[in-house]
Amino acid sequence: MPTENDNSALDNLNFDNRFVRELPGDPEPDNFRRQVYSACYSWALPTPAKQPRLVAYSREVADDLDLSAASCESEDFCRVFAGSRLAKGMEAYAMCYGGHQFGHWAGQLGDGRAINLGEVVNSRRQRYTLQLKGAGVTPYSRSADGLAVLRSSIREFLCSEAMHHLGVPTTRALSVILTGQQVARDMFYDGNPQLEAGAVVCRVAQSFTRFGSFQIFTARDDLDSLKKLVDYTIRTDFPELGEPSIPVYLRWFEEVCRKTAEMIVHWQRVGFVHGVMNTDNMSILGLTIDYGPYGWLENYDPDWTPNTTDAQGRRYRFGNQPKIAYWNLVQLANALYPLIMRAESLQQALLAYTETYDAGWQAMMAAKLGLLAFTPGEDEALTSNLFQLLQAAETDMTLFFRQLADIDFTLGSDSLPAFLLLMQQTSYEPLNDDTVELAKAWFVSYRSRSQRDGQPQQARRAAMNAANPKYVLRNYLAQMAIDQAEQGDFAMVWELLDLLRNPYSEQADKADFAAKRPDWAKQRAGCSTLSCSS
Ligand code: AMP
Ligand code: MG
I need a surface site. Which of 21, 210, 213, 364 has the fewest CB within 10 A? Predict the structure, then answer.
Protein backbone atom coordinates (compact mmCIF):
# COMPACT_ATOMS: atom_id res chain seq x y z
CA MET A 1 0.00 0.00 0.00
CA PRO A 2 1.22 3.51 -0.71
CA THR A 3 2.26 5.43 2.36
CA GLU A 4 1.41 9.02 3.18
CA ASN A 5 4.97 9.86 2.34
CA ASP A 6 4.66 8.46 -1.20
CA ASN A 7 1.47 10.37 -1.75
CA SER A 8 3.02 13.66 -0.90
CA ALA A 9 5.93 13.14 -3.31
CA LEU A 10 3.96 14.74 -6.10
CA ASP A 11 3.17 17.72 -3.92
CA ASN A 12 6.87 18.15 -3.38
CA LEU A 13 7.73 18.57 -7.04
CA ASN A 14 9.33 21.93 -7.64
CA PHE A 15 7.12 23.82 -10.09
CA ASP A 16 8.18 27.04 -11.76
CA ASN A 17 5.50 27.82 -14.34
CA ARG A 18 7.31 30.34 -16.43
CA PHE A 19 5.28 29.90 -19.61
CA VAL A 20 2.02 31.05 -18.03
CA ARG A 21 3.75 33.60 -15.83
CA GLU A 22 5.60 35.42 -18.58
CA LEU A 23 3.43 35.03 -21.67
CA PRO A 24 0.06 36.59 -22.49
CA GLY A 25 -2.84 34.35 -21.45
CA ASP A 26 -6.49 34.20 -22.40
CA PRO A 27 -8.49 36.19 -19.78
CA GLU A 28 -11.54 33.91 -20.19
CA PRO A 29 -11.48 31.47 -17.25
CA ASP A 30 -14.21 29.13 -18.51
CA ASN A 31 -13.53 26.07 -20.59
CA PHE A 32 -15.66 26.28 -23.75
CA ARG A 33 -14.68 25.99 -27.42
CA ARG A 34 -13.80 29.26 -29.09
CA GLN A 35 -11.30 31.30 -31.07
CA VAL A 36 -8.68 32.67 -28.70
CA TYR A 37 -6.87 35.88 -29.64
CA SER A 38 -3.68 37.55 -28.41
CA ALA A 39 -2.88 34.70 -26.05
CA CYS A 40 -0.38 31.84 -25.91
CA TYR A 41 -2.61 29.70 -23.70
CA SER A 42 -5.99 29.31 -22.02
CA TRP A 43 -6.74 27.84 -18.61
CA ALA A 44 -8.30 24.38 -18.89
CA LEU A 45 -8.74 21.85 -16.09
CA PRO A 46 -8.41 18.14 -16.87
CA THR A 47 -11.59 16.08 -16.66
CA PRO A 48 -11.19 13.77 -13.63
CA ALA A 49 -10.78 10.12 -14.66
CA LYS A 50 -13.49 7.75 -13.44
CA GLN A 51 -11.26 4.93 -12.35
CA PRO A 52 -7.58 5.50 -13.11
CA ARG A 53 -5.37 2.43 -13.51
CA LEU A 54 -1.66 2.49 -14.29
CA VAL A 55 -0.60 0.66 -17.45
CA ALA A 56 3.09 1.58 -17.41
CA TYR A 57 5.56 4.31 -16.50
CA SER A 58 9.07 5.13 -17.62
CA ARG A 59 11.57 4.94 -14.80
CA GLU A 60 14.06 7.10 -16.73
CA VAL A 61 11.55 9.94 -17.11
CA ALA A 62 10.56 9.50 -13.46
CA ASP A 63 14.25 9.86 -12.58
CA ASP A 64 14.44 13.08 -14.58
CA LEU A 65 11.62 14.39 -12.41
CA ASP A 66 13.20 13.07 -9.17
CA LEU A 67 10.25 10.67 -8.70
CA SER A 68 10.96 7.36 -6.98
CA ALA A 69 9.54 4.01 -8.06
CA ALA A 70 7.35 4.05 -4.94
CA SER A 71 5.85 7.41 -5.95
CA CYS A 72 5.17 6.15 -9.47
CA GLU A 73 3.45 3.07 -8.15
CA SER A 74 1.28 5.02 -5.71
CA GLU A 75 -2.44 5.61 -6.12
CA ASP A 76 -1.81 9.31 -6.04
CA PHE A 77 0.45 9.11 -9.11
CA CYS A 78 -2.37 7.44 -10.99
CA ARG A 79 -4.84 10.09 -9.95
CA VAL A 80 -2.58 13.02 -10.74
CA PHE A 81 -1.39 11.75 -14.14
CA ALA A 82 -4.88 10.69 -15.19
CA GLY A 83 -6.04 14.24 -14.52
CA SER A 84 -8.09 13.62 -11.37
CA ARG A 85 -6.09 15.85 -9.06
CA LEU A 86 -3.72 18.78 -9.48
CA ALA A 87 -0.66 18.41 -7.26
CA LYS A 88 0.72 21.42 -5.43
CA GLY A 89 2.24 23.91 -7.86
CA MET A 90 0.46 22.58 -10.93
CA GLU A 91 -1.42 25.04 -13.16
CA ALA A 92 -3.49 23.52 -15.95
CA TYR A 93 -3.56 25.17 -19.37
CA ALA A 94 -3.89 24.42 -23.07
CA MET A 95 -1.65 26.11 -25.63
CA CYS A 96 -2.90 28.13 -28.59
CA TYR A 97 -1.39 27.40 -32.00
CA GLY A 98 -2.29 27.11 -35.65
CA GLY A 99 -0.81 25.10 -38.45
CA HIS A 100 -0.62 23.99 -42.03
CA GLN A 101 -2.33 20.61 -42.32
CA PHE A 102 -1.41 18.62 -45.43
CA GLY A 103 -0.11 21.78 -47.09
CA HIS A 104 -3.06 24.05 -46.31
CA TRP A 105 -3.39 26.72 -43.65
CA ALA A 106 -5.92 25.43 -41.12
CA GLY A 107 -6.23 28.43 -38.78
CA GLN A 108 -6.46 27.92 -35.02
CA LEU A 109 -5.79 24.37 -33.83
CA GLY A 110 -4.29 24.41 -30.34
CA ASP A 111 -4.12 21.77 -27.64
CA GLY A 112 -7.48 20.13 -28.30
CA ARG A 113 -6.70 17.18 -26.09
CA ALA A 114 -3.50 18.15 -24.36
CA ILE A 115 -3.42 19.91 -21.00
CA ASN A 116 -0.15 21.17 -19.55
CA LEU A 117 0.36 20.85 -15.82
CA GLY A 118 3.29 23.22 -15.45
CA GLU A 119 7.08 23.12 -15.46
CA VAL A 120 9.11 21.06 -13.01
CA VAL A 121 12.64 22.15 -12.18
CA ASN A 122 14.53 19.11 -10.90
CA SER A 123 17.43 18.83 -8.46
CA ARG A 124 19.87 19.29 -11.36
CA ARG A 125 18.07 22.50 -12.31
CA GLN A 126 16.69 20.98 -15.51
CA ARG A 127 13.27 22.23 -16.61
CA TYR A 128 10.54 19.89 -17.86
CA THR A 129 7.01 20.72 -18.94
CA LEU A 130 4.44 18.06 -18.04
CA GLN A 131 1.52 17.57 -20.39
CA LEU A 132 -1.45 15.20 -20.23
CA LYS A 133 -2.79 13.94 -23.55
CA GLY A 134 -6.38 12.72 -23.57
CA ALA A 135 -7.56 14.34 -20.31
CA GLY A 136 -10.62 16.08 -21.72
CA VAL A 137 -11.79 19.08 -23.67
CA THR A 138 -10.15 22.47 -23.86
CA PRO A 139 -11.10 25.71 -25.63
CA TYR A 140 -9.22 24.24 -28.64
CA SER A 141 -11.13 20.97 -28.90
CA ARG A 142 -13.25 22.18 -31.85
CA SER A 143 -15.77 19.40 -32.57
CA ALA A 144 -13.81 16.60 -30.87
CA ASP A 145 -13.95 15.08 -27.39
CA GLY A 146 -10.48 15.80 -25.98
CA LEU A 147 -9.94 12.12 -25.22
CA ALA A 148 -7.53 9.42 -26.39
CA VAL A 149 -7.86 5.65 -26.56
CA LEU A 150 -5.60 3.00 -25.09
CA ARG A 151 -4.14 1.81 -28.41
CA SER A 152 -2.89 5.25 -29.48
CA SER A 153 -1.72 6.05 -25.94
CA ILE A 154 0.39 2.87 -25.77
CA ARG A 155 1.77 3.68 -29.21
CA GLU A 156 2.78 7.18 -28.09
CA PHE A 157 4.20 5.99 -24.77
CA LEU A 158 6.33 3.17 -26.20
CA CYS A 159 7.53 5.05 -29.24
CA SER A 160 8.59 8.18 -27.32
CA GLU A 161 10.76 6.07 -25.07
CA ALA A 162 12.04 3.85 -27.89
CA MET A 163 13.07 6.91 -29.91
CA HIS A 164 14.89 8.39 -26.93
CA HIS A 165 16.92 5.24 -26.41
CA LEU A 166 17.69 5.13 -30.14
CA GLY A 167 19.25 8.57 -29.75
CA VAL A 168 16.52 10.38 -31.69
CA PRO A 169 15.46 13.78 -30.26
CA THR A 170 11.92 13.37 -28.96
CA THR A 171 9.37 14.37 -26.39
CA ARG A 172 9.26 11.78 -23.62
CA ALA A 173 6.45 9.91 -21.89
CA LEU A 174 6.22 9.48 -18.13
CA SER A 175 3.14 7.31 -17.94
CA VAL A 176 0.13 5.76 -19.59
CA ILE A 177 -2.96 5.38 -17.45
CA LEU A 178 -6.40 3.95 -18.20
CA THR A 179 -9.16 6.38 -17.27
CA GLY A 180 -11.93 3.84 -16.74
CA GLN A 181 -14.02 5.71 -19.30
CA GLN A 182 -15.13 4.33 -22.67
CA VAL A 183 -14.44 6.42 -25.75
CA ALA A 184 -16.20 6.07 -29.13
CA ARG A 185 -13.90 5.89 -32.15
CA ASP A 186 -14.61 5.18 -35.81
CA MET A 187 -11.23 3.60 -36.56
CA PHE A 188 -11.92 2.86 -40.23
CA TYR A 189 -14.03 5.98 -40.87
CA ASP A 190 -16.76 3.67 -42.17
CA GLY A 191 -19.62 4.83 -39.96
CA ASN A 192 -19.11 2.07 -37.38
CA PRO A 193 -17.80 3.69 -34.22
CA GLN A 194 -16.78 1.27 -31.47
CA LEU A 195 -16.35 1.90 -27.77
CA GLU A 196 -12.73 1.65 -26.68
CA ALA A 197 -10.90 2.08 -23.40
CA GLY A 198 -9.83 5.68 -22.75
CA ALA A 199 -6.30 6.48 -21.56
CA VAL A 200 -4.06 9.43 -20.73
CA VAL A 201 -0.36 9.75 -21.48
CA CYS A 202 1.77 12.20 -19.53
CA ARG A 203 4.26 13.66 -21.99
CA VAL A 204 7.39 15.43 -20.88
CA ALA A 205 9.60 17.88 -22.79
CA GLN A 206 11.64 20.98 -22.23
CA SER A 207 8.84 22.79 -24.06
CA PHE A 208 5.95 21.92 -26.36
CA THR A 209 6.18 25.04 -28.53
CA ARG A 210 5.52 24.29 -32.20
CA PHE A 211 6.07 26.06 -35.52
CA GLY A 212 2.32 26.69 -35.47
CA SER A 213 2.62 28.51 -32.12
CA PHE A 214 4.32 31.36 -34.04
CA GLN A 215 2.29 31.03 -37.22
CA ILE A 216 -1.02 31.70 -35.51
CA PHE A 217 0.02 35.21 -34.47
CA THR A 218 1.35 36.23 -37.88
CA ALA A 219 -1.77 34.88 -39.56
CA ARG A 220 -3.78 37.18 -37.29
CA ASP A 221 -1.46 40.16 -37.72
CA ASP A 222 -0.72 40.06 -34.01
CA LEU A 223 2.96 41.02 -34.08
CA ASP A 224 2.97 42.04 -30.46
CA SER A 225 2.18 38.48 -29.29
CA LEU A 226 4.51 37.04 -31.93
CA LYS A 227 7.41 39.07 -30.57
CA LYS A 228 6.60 38.10 -26.99
CA LEU A 229 6.63 34.38 -27.84
CA VAL A 230 9.81 34.61 -29.93
CA ASP A 231 11.67 36.55 -27.22
CA TYR A 232 10.44 34.16 -24.56
CA THR A 233 11.48 31.09 -26.57
CA ILE A 234 14.96 32.47 -27.18
CA ARG A 235 15.42 33.41 -23.52
CA THR A 236 14.08 30.12 -22.22
CA ASP A 237 15.02 27.44 -24.74
CA PHE A 238 17.97 29.05 -26.56
CA PRO A 239 19.65 31.25 -23.89
CA GLU A 240 23.10 30.64 -25.40
CA LEU A 241 22.11 32.84 -28.38
CA GLY A 242 22.00 35.99 -26.24
CA GLU A 243 19.43 38.71 -25.69
CA PRO A 244 16.75 38.89 -28.41
CA SER A 245 17.44 41.31 -31.30
CA ILE A 246 17.07 41.03 -35.07
CA PRO A 247 20.47 39.34 -35.57
CA VAL A 248 19.64 36.96 -32.70
CA TYR A 249 16.25 36.15 -34.30
CA LEU A 250 18.12 35.15 -37.44
CA ARG A 251 20.64 33.04 -35.55
CA TRP A 252 17.79 31.42 -33.67
CA PHE A 253 15.92 30.56 -36.85
CA GLU A 254 19.13 29.10 -38.27
CA GLU A 255 19.49 26.99 -35.14
CA VAL A 256 15.91 25.72 -35.51
CA CYS A 257 16.78 24.77 -39.13
CA ARG A 258 19.83 22.89 -37.90
CA LYS A 259 18.03 21.03 -35.12
CA THR A 260 15.19 20.08 -37.46
CA ALA A 261 17.68 18.71 -39.99
CA GLU A 262 19.41 16.63 -37.32
CA MET A 263 16.09 15.13 -36.25
CA ILE A 264 15.16 14.19 -39.82
CA VAL A 265 18.55 12.54 -40.41
CA HIS A 266 17.83 10.35 -37.38
CA TRP A 267 14.36 9.45 -38.69
CA GLN A 268 15.87 8.38 -42.00
CA ARG A 269 18.57 6.41 -40.18
CA VAL A 270 16.18 4.32 -38.11
CA GLY A 271 13.35 4.05 -40.66
CA PHE A 272 10.78 6.10 -38.77
CA VAL A 273 7.84 7.62 -40.65
CA HIS A 274 6.06 10.32 -38.65
CA GLY A 275 2.92 10.23 -40.75
CA VAL A 276 1.54 13.73 -39.98
CA MET A 277 4.25 16.33 -40.43
CA ASN A 278 1.85 19.26 -40.25
CA THR A 279 3.43 22.48 -38.97
CA ASP A 280 1.51 22.15 -35.69
CA ASN A 281 3.36 18.85 -35.19
CA MET A 282 6.84 20.37 -35.59
CA SER A 283 8.63 21.19 -32.34
CA ILE A 284 10.68 24.39 -32.20
CA LEU A 285 13.34 22.34 -30.37
CA GLY A 286 13.63 19.79 -33.17
CA LEU A 287 12.00 17.06 -31.10
CA THR A 288 9.86 14.33 -32.59
CA ILE A 289 6.41 15.28 -31.34
CA ASP A 290 2.81 14.06 -31.61
CA TYR A 291 2.95 10.35 -32.21
CA GLY A 292 -0.17 9.56 -34.21
CA PRO A 293 -0.32 7.31 -37.27
CA TYR A 294 3.45 6.88 -37.35
CA GLY A 295 5.18 3.69 -38.49
CA TRP A 296 8.49 1.92 -38.98
CA LEU A 297 9.76 0.83 -42.35
CA GLU A 298 9.81 -2.91 -42.73
CA ASN A 299 10.60 -3.61 -46.40
CA TYR A 300 12.57 -0.60 -47.60
CA ASP A 301 10.14 1.59 -49.52
CA PRO A 302 10.63 5.36 -49.75
CA ASP A 303 7.01 5.73 -50.88
CA TRP A 304 5.54 4.11 -47.80
CA THR A 305 3.33 5.97 -45.36
CA PRO A 306 1.41 4.31 -42.53
CA ASN A 307 -1.23 7.07 -42.54
CA THR A 308 -4.38 6.04 -44.44
CA THR A 309 -5.59 9.66 -44.34
CA ASP A 310 -2.55 10.49 -46.52
CA ALA A 311 -2.83 7.45 -48.80
CA GLN A 312 -3.73 9.52 -51.88
CA GLY A 313 -1.00 12.15 -52.06
CA ARG A 314 1.47 10.38 -49.76
CA ARG A 315 2.74 13.78 -48.78
CA TYR A 316 4.31 12.39 -45.61
CA ARG A 317 5.88 9.23 -47.07
CA PHE A 318 9.29 8.14 -45.77
CA GLY A 319 11.31 9.50 -48.69
CA ASN A 320 9.55 12.86 -48.60
CA GLN A 321 10.23 13.69 -44.95
CA PRO A 322 13.40 15.72 -45.60
CA LYS A 323 11.60 17.93 -48.16
CA ILE A 324 8.56 18.39 -45.97
CA ALA A 325 10.67 19.50 -43.02
CA TYR A 326 12.17 22.15 -45.30
CA TRP A 327 8.71 23.20 -46.51
CA ASN A 328 7.63 23.52 -42.88
CA LEU A 329 10.67 25.66 -42.08
CA VAL A 330 9.76 27.94 -44.99
CA GLN A 331 6.34 28.40 -43.37
CA LEU A 332 8.06 29.24 -40.09
CA ALA A 333 10.31 31.74 -41.92
CA ASN A 334 7.19 33.37 -43.38
CA ALA A 335 5.73 33.61 -39.89
CA LEU A 336 8.89 35.27 -38.55
CA TYR A 337 9.31 37.62 -41.50
CA PRO A 338 7.29 40.53 -40.05
CA LEU A 339 9.63 40.58 -37.04
CA ILE A 340 12.81 40.41 -39.09
CA MET A 341 11.87 42.02 -42.44
CA ARG A 342 14.92 40.58 -44.19
CA ALA A 343 13.86 38.01 -46.74
CA GLU A 344 17.37 37.36 -48.01
CA SER A 345 18.75 36.73 -44.54
CA LEU A 346 15.96 34.27 -43.86
CA GLN A 347 16.71 32.53 -47.17
CA GLN A 348 20.32 32.38 -46.15
CA ALA A 349 19.40 30.89 -42.77
CA LEU A 350 17.32 28.21 -44.49
CA LEU A 351 20.51 27.01 -46.15
CA ALA A 352 21.53 25.77 -42.70
CA TYR A 353 18.81 23.15 -43.08
CA THR A 354 20.07 21.88 -46.42
CA GLU A 355 23.71 21.95 -45.36
CA THR A 356 23.09 20.22 -42.04
CA TYR A 357 20.83 17.66 -43.63
CA ASP A 358 23.19 16.85 -46.50
CA ALA A 359 26.26 16.56 -44.30
CA GLY A 360 24.31 14.68 -41.63
CA TRP A 361 22.83 12.26 -44.14
CA GLN A 362 26.24 11.49 -45.62
CA ALA A 363 27.83 10.90 -42.22
CA MET A 364 24.85 8.77 -41.22
CA MET A 365 25.06 6.63 -44.37
CA ALA A 366 28.78 6.18 -43.92
CA ALA A 367 28.13 4.99 -40.36
CA LYS A 368 25.37 2.62 -41.44
CA LEU A 369 27.69 1.10 -44.03
CA GLY A 370 30.72 1.01 -41.74
CA LEU A 371 32.76 3.44 -43.85
CA LEU A 372 35.21 5.78 -42.18
CA ALA A 373 33.76 8.74 -44.07
CA PHE A 374 31.45 9.45 -46.97
CA THR A 375 33.36 10.38 -50.11
CA PRO A 376 31.22 12.82 -52.11
CA GLY A 377 31.32 12.19 -55.84
CA GLU A 378 31.92 8.50 -55.26
CA ASP A 379 29.70 7.12 -52.52
CA GLU A 380 26.43 8.53 -53.90
CA ALA A 381 26.29 5.69 -56.44
CA LEU A 382 26.99 3.13 -53.72
CA THR A 383 24.08 4.36 -51.61
CA SER A 384 21.60 4.88 -54.44
CA ASN A 385 22.34 1.45 -55.90
CA LEU A 386 21.83 -0.03 -52.48
CA PHE A 387 18.44 1.61 -52.01
CA GLN A 388 17.43 0.48 -55.48
CA LEU A 389 18.34 -3.08 -54.50
CA LEU A 390 16.56 -2.98 -51.13
CA GLN A 391 13.42 -1.60 -52.72
CA ALA A 392 13.44 -4.12 -55.56
CA ALA A 393 14.00 -7.08 -53.23
CA GLU A 394 11.62 -5.74 -50.54
CA THR A 395 14.32 -6.09 -47.95
CA ASP A 396 13.74 -5.35 -44.27
CA MET A 397 15.72 -2.19 -43.66
CA THR A 398 16.53 -2.77 -39.98
CA LEU A 399 17.54 -6.42 -40.36
CA PHE A 400 19.60 -5.74 -43.46
CA PHE A 401 21.86 -3.07 -42.00
CA ARG A 402 22.27 -4.89 -38.72
CA GLN A 403 23.30 -8.14 -40.38
CA LEU A 404 25.51 -6.45 -42.95
CA ALA A 405 27.93 -5.77 -40.11
CA ASP A 406 28.42 -9.52 -39.69
CA ILE A 407 29.64 -10.06 -43.24
CA ASP A 408 33.32 -10.65 -42.82
CA PHE A 409 35.45 -9.52 -45.76
CA THR A 410 38.41 -11.57 -44.54
CA LEU A 411 36.48 -14.58 -45.84
CA GLY A 412 37.45 -13.37 -49.32
CA SER A 413 35.29 -14.81 -52.08
CA ASP A 414 33.11 -16.63 -49.49
CA SER A 415 31.70 -13.30 -48.40
CA LEU A 416 29.56 -13.02 -51.56
CA PRO A 417 27.47 -16.18 -50.89
CA ALA A 418 27.15 -15.02 -47.28
CA PHE A 419 25.76 -11.70 -48.54
CA LEU A 420 23.30 -13.39 -50.91
CA LEU A 421 22.07 -15.53 -48.04
CA LEU A 422 21.63 -12.41 -45.92
CA MET A 423 19.60 -10.82 -48.75
CA GLN A 424 17.40 -13.88 -48.98
CA GLN A 425 16.84 -14.07 -45.26
CA THR A 426 16.02 -10.39 -44.77
CA SER A 427 13.82 -9.89 -47.87
CA TYR A 428 10.05 -10.31 -48.01
CA GLU A 429 10.08 -11.56 -51.60
CA PRO A 430 12.27 -14.40 -52.94
CA LEU A 431 15.24 -13.06 -54.90
CA ASN A 432 14.85 -13.29 -58.68
CA ASP A 433 17.47 -13.13 -61.44
CA ASP A 434 17.36 -9.34 -61.51
CA THR A 435 17.70 -8.85 -57.77
CA VAL A 436 20.49 -11.43 -57.56
CA GLU A 437 22.40 -9.53 -60.24
CA LEU A 438 21.82 -6.20 -58.47
CA ALA A 439 22.89 -7.75 -55.17
CA LYS A 440 26.10 -9.23 -56.59
CA ALA A 441 27.10 -6.00 -58.31
CA TRP A 442 26.36 -3.91 -55.26
CA PHE A 443 28.19 -6.21 -52.88
CA VAL A 444 31.33 -6.36 -54.99
CA SER A 445 31.52 -2.57 -55.14
CA TYR A 446 30.74 -2.25 -51.42
CA ARG A 447 33.39 -4.80 -50.46
CA SER A 448 36.11 -3.10 -52.42
CA ARG A 449 35.03 0.33 -51.17
CA SER A 450 35.04 -0.90 -47.59
CA GLN A 451 38.36 -2.71 -47.92
CA ARG A 452 39.97 0.50 -49.14
CA ASP A 453 39.23 1.96 -45.69
CA GLY A 454 41.36 -0.82 -44.24
CA GLN A 455 39.29 -1.09 -41.05
CA PRO A 456 39.59 -4.32 -39.07
CA GLN A 457 36.34 -6.33 -39.11
CA GLN A 458 35.84 -5.92 -35.35
CA ALA A 459 36.00 -2.15 -35.50
CA ARG A 460 33.79 -1.98 -38.59
CA ARG A 461 31.18 -4.20 -36.96
CA ALA A 462 31.18 -2.23 -33.70
CA ALA A 463 30.79 1.08 -35.55
CA MET A 464 27.95 -0.26 -37.68
CA ASN A 465 26.14 -1.73 -34.69
CA ALA A 466 26.19 1.68 -33.01
CA ALA A 467 24.34 3.21 -36.00
CA ASN A 468 22.05 0.30 -36.90
CA PRO A 469 19.64 -0.75 -34.15
CA LYS A 470 18.90 -4.39 -33.62
CA TYR A 471 15.46 -3.65 -32.17
CA VAL A 472 12.90 -1.05 -33.21
CA LEU A 473 9.24 -0.74 -32.28
CA ARG A 474 8.03 -2.84 -35.19
CA ASN A 475 4.44 -1.99 -36.11
CA TYR A 476 3.15 -5.46 -35.43
CA LEU A 477 4.94 -5.74 -32.07
CA ALA A 478 3.23 -2.57 -30.83
CA GLN A 479 -0.07 -3.98 -32.06
CA MET A 480 0.47 -7.28 -30.22
CA ALA A 481 1.17 -5.40 -27.00
CA ILE A 482 -1.99 -3.33 -27.59
CA ASP A 483 -4.14 -6.42 -28.25
CA GLN A 484 -2.99 -7.90 -24.95
CA ALA A 485 -3.35 -4.65 -23.03
CA GLU A 486 -6.92 -4.32 -24.30
CA GLN A 487 -7.53 -7.67 -22.59
CA GLY A 488 -6.07 -6.27 -19.36
CA ASP A 489 -2.61 -7.81 -19.69
CA PHE A 490 0.16 -5.19 -19.75
CA ALA A 491 3.12 -7.57 -19.63
CA MET A 492 4.06 -7.09 -23.28
CA VAL A 493 3.99 -3.29 -22.95
CA TRP A 494 6.53 -3.63 -20.14
CA GLU A 495 8.54 -6.16 -22.08
CA LEU A 496 8.80 -3.88 -25.13
CA LEU A 497 9.63 -0.89 -22.95
CA ASP A 498 12.44 -2.91 -21.43
CA LEU A 499 13.67 -4.35 -24.74
CA LEU A 500 13.80 -0.93 -26.37
CA ARG A 501 15.91 0.52 -23.59
CA ASN A 502 18.91 -1.08 -25.29
CA PRO A 503 18.09 -1.13 -29.00
CA TYR A 504 21.71 -1.49 -30.10
CA SER A 505 22.61 -4.43 -27.85
CA GLU A 506 22.15 -8.10 -28.57
CA GLN A 507 19.68 -9.37 -25.98
CA ALA A 508 19.52 -13.01 -25.07
CA ASP A 509 16.17 -14.72 -25.74
CA LYS A 510 14.82 -11.71 -27.62
CA ALA A 511 15.52 -12.89 -31.16
CA ASP A 512 11.79 -12.93 -31.93
CA PHE A 513 11.68 -9.17 -31.59
CA ALA A 514 14.30 -8.74 -34.32
CA ALA A 515 12.53 -10.76 -36.96
CA LYS A 516 10.75 -10.05 -40.21
CA ARG A 517 7.13 -8.97 -40.08
CA PRO A 518 4.97 -12.12 -40.05
CA ASP A 519 2.54 -12.60 -42.95
CA TRP A 520 -0.55 -12.07 -40.80
CA ALA A 521 0.61 -8.53 -40.05
CA LYS A 522 0.96 -7.41 -43.66
CA GLN A 523 -2.57 -6.06 -44.11
CA ARG A 524 -3.88 -5.90 -40.56
CA ALA A 525 -4.95 -2.43 -39.36
CA GLY A 526 -2.54 -1.12 -36.78
CA CYS A 527 0.28 -3.25 -38.20
CA SER A 528 0.66 -1.76 -41.65
CA THR A 529 -1.80 1.11 -41.85
CA LEU A 530 -3.32 3.49 -39.37
CA SER A 531 -5.95 6.17 -39.54
CA CYS A 532 -5.84 9.44 -37.60
CA SER A 533 -8.66 8.15 -35.39
CA SER A 534 -7.11 7.85 -31.97
P1 AMP B 1 -2.97 16.06 -34.78
O2 AMP B 1 -2.68 16.33 -36.23
O3 AMP B 1 -3.42 14.68 -34.47
O4 AMP B 1 -1.83 16.47 -33.93
O5 AMP B 1 -4.23 16.95 -34.35
C6 AMP B 1 -4.59 18.15 -34.97
C7 AMP B 1 -5.45 18.98 -34.04
O8 AMP B 1 -6.62 18.28 -33.66
C9 AMP B 1 -4.77 19.40 -32.76
O10 AMP B 1 -5.18 20.70 -32.48
C11 AMP B 1 -5.32 18.42 -31.75
O12 AMP B 1 -5.29 18.93 -30.45
C13 AMP B 1 -6.73 18.21 -32.25
N14 AMP B 1 -7.30 16.92 -31.85
C15 AMP B 1 -6.97 15.69 -32.31
N16 AMP B 1 -7.71 14.73 -31.70
C17 AMP B 1 -8.53 15.37 -30.83
C18 AMP B 1 -9.54 14.95 -29.91
N19 AMP B 1 -9.88 13.68 -29.74
N20 AMP B 1 -10.16 15.90 -29.17
C21 AMP B 1 -9.85 17.20 -29.32
N22 AMP B 1 -8.93 17.67 -30.18
C23 AMP B 1 -8.27 16.76 -30.93
MG1 MG C 1 -0.81 17.64 -33.12
Answer: 21
